[in-house]
Queue: 4 jobs
Job 1
Amino acid sequence: MADRLDFFISFGGPDEPWAEWMAHVLEGEGYSVLTQGRDMRPGGNIVHQTQLGVMADRTILVLSPDLFDRDFPASEWYSVFFQDPVGRLRKLVPVLVSDCELPGLLAPIVYIKLLDLPPDKAREVFLDGLKPGRDVPKTPPPYPGVTA
């Protein structure tokens, strides 16, 4: 395991396929990623691994109804939220994979929406949403005034 992690992926149990897909995409781009399935192996300590995870540069929170009735993912995102409560560092990045209402502190956080996208478009939207900085269009917008 790297000394510094780029991403930790937190999810509710049934969303593990999404977490694995995201980890595969990120690792393919050269990022270091910690997930339960890949890194919390027999003989290891899940609490220690989770602590390493929440100290990653950024935590991806897989959003679906399956997330909200589980205590461990809640404790993970609470910890990350506490580290960056107004989102200046974008440490907590929610990714919507299934339609759900976002409760309480999650409601105002801008999320990446992968819901109903085909694989190639989902990959593009996912990686684009994780890019640092502002989202400045590559082409200028049309001039809104009179062109005569």
Job 2
Amino acid sequence: MSEFGDLPLKADGSDEAFNEPAVSRRRTPVLFIAIVGLIAGAGGAWWWARERASPAPAAARTATDTPIAPAAEPVKLPPLGQMDIFLRALLGSLSASPELARWLATDDLIRQMAHAIDLVSRGQSPARELGVLRPEGPLQTSGTPRTVSINPASYRRFDGIARTVASLDPAAVAAAYRTIQPRLDEAYRALGRTSLSVDQAVATALQVLIDTPEAADPIRLAPGPGATLGFADPDLQALPAAQKQLIRMGPENAARVKDTLRRIKIAIETPASR
């Protein structure tokens, strides 16, 4: 068995060289941390609103006696540049996930979310922009130089993040997303993205990950240009960088993440009144 450093996928979908500089090796290959951040950040905002909102008046009834959901008191969000304090305070008590805690210790969280969502919505990987969550240990491979494949032990490095995503409540996430959406949209448009709203970008990003095809073990690898290593299956190698990175988490973790994101997408797209 040989060990190599993870190969963060470039924006063009190609693979990085194994002998990348030490600074580059500290960057994470975890593409969906932006989605985790979005979900968790929204979850914290939802919790904050729930705990602090004044009791809503009794709902009126229509002529057909159909219940109407009471309107929630709007949450007054901090300005864009002050969202870090807001999110850290909320998420510190919302989740004990060490992966999430490491990310919350960084700065400019809402802009990180917006940038990563933008990249994933276009099939790209935000691994280079989100370096604090690189899994411990290098990518491990098995086999001979002619038949190299990812060692299943490598997948275990992603278990913590997969558990974090899988533990989230889709209904709470949907309610939460609507709370922080104004600031997220503001950060997204500051990137110069004016043709789509952040709602459209989030829906597209989620769908990109959900559409990632299954890759059964063993996931075989093949040498690429220079000192690079990519998927031996040409269909997998041709996938967008975001999907290729999710596959590297392993079949079990990828399935858990995709199942949760699928339910979250449905919940977000369901009208709040329902």
Job 3
Amino acid sequence: MAYGEMWIIGGSVFAASVVQSVSSFGFGVVCVALMPVFGVPLADVVVVVTLLVTVNLAIALWRLRAHVDWRPVAWVLVGVPFGLPVGLYLLGHGPEWVLRILLGGVLVFMAIEPFFRPNRPPAGGHRGWAVAAGMLGGLLGGALSTGGPPIVIYFYRRQWSKEVTKAAVLLSFAGTVAFRLVAYVPAGMYTSGRFQAAAVGLPAVVLGTLVGERLFGAVSQEGFRRAVAAMLVVCGLYQVGRGAGLW
């Protein structure tokens, strides 16, 4: 592996780890946005990100172990397999640019709407909403490889404490990542070069996660909500730009 590529991977996963540890998501978004720009093949990025995000999730969930509750997360994960086939169909037949623009617009709206009505009671507490969030996450994951935001929005709008919200989001991601790690085996996606790249990025993930966890501990409840909203807006604008062919 070239020396320059080692710095690219290390810097990207460090930034991604900090972002995810503060806002509860964004690891893949940051890595996919940065690494290919500097010449790292997207196929390599996808596998390396999946391997390294497990470290970030493990550290963050251990620190939040007192707030872990599988019950709401289980219903989200129930919905994922039902949405995935629809997403895969749309990947092959649907107009991608329409899906991206619609997704981006919804993300921006859902992120900023609570700030205009701050006293609105928590929405979507029924388990049916959890299953729906999982189905939509599976659909978007299959169609656009962006299944995280619907799940983030579901828990974000519950208006729980920042610790409970973050634990629920990360548990959901841990479940989906576990499915992907297993699915990569028969697909032959693991190579020695990708394992080497993951090993190079490992120290940066640990350091970035610890830095991000310190920042998360210092941020207020309102600051956490604003950080999540900012990440959702960034993701939304990115999808709109991709759909419009701006990048």
Job 4
Amino acid sequence: MTAPPRIGVDLGGTKIEAVALAPDGEILLRRRLPTPAQDYDAILAAIAELVREIESEAGGAARVGVGTPGAISPATGLMKNSNTIVLNGKPLVRDLSRALGREVRIENDANCFALSEAVDGAGAGEAVVFGVILGTGVGGGIVVKGRILKGRNAVAGEWGHNPLPRMRPEEFPGPRCYCGRDGCIETFLCGGALAAAHEARTGENLSAPQIARRAETGDASARATLDVYRDRLARALAHVVNLLDPDAIVLGGGVSNVDALYDGLEALVASYAFTDSLATKIARNVHGDSGGVRGAAWLWPPD
């Protein structure tokens, strides 16, 4: 008997993307809609519309996985910690399952990214994979032997809301984070933080991609900004190595596309980690922006 198709949905802040995934990981169909970010019921309707559209083309009811910002609280079963605010406090699993008339699996989007890269990406074949998101925010996910490690409180991998390790005197107390604390890793390593650090050093108001392009052409001030960012990233990743000691760390998100970021990064992490040598592989993602939506589909294991 042929297994039903597998659909992954990535519920982003600006767009909702859905794909049909083949058993070998190939994306067969892809559809997108803008996210009605201020309207919970409209989000449910948009996801249902995308799923049904793909099912009509793929031919048959599918198993559906959804990657979301935030997580399902083990205590209440409701969404928490989402930067799409209307999701917080809502029974998203129940409501989507009702809307589609079947079980729906939901996971944090960083966990979905990590799962995608662990199944058939840069972390394939590794037992413990830590997936990193360096984008608008800073997230993380842990996959152990092909399974997402969610944790007792559903916050495993949320390294972005730990303090930046080994802070320099000039870094204290750190920027204020939306979580209400100062000096979170996210405030130092998100894309906006890279731009802010460059402006603080040089007075130039440039985006992260512009800084990267200037660094590639040999601009000394842009390279210096990336050096500061790389050092902060290395300190934060060394903290992960000391706590988790993963086989592979896979970088994703917009900042992960900066080639110069990887120059000497493993050596820097090794210099901060509590080890005589670093065997952990640190790699750029394979699946790019499709990591989250593919990982959502992989919430239903391979047939």
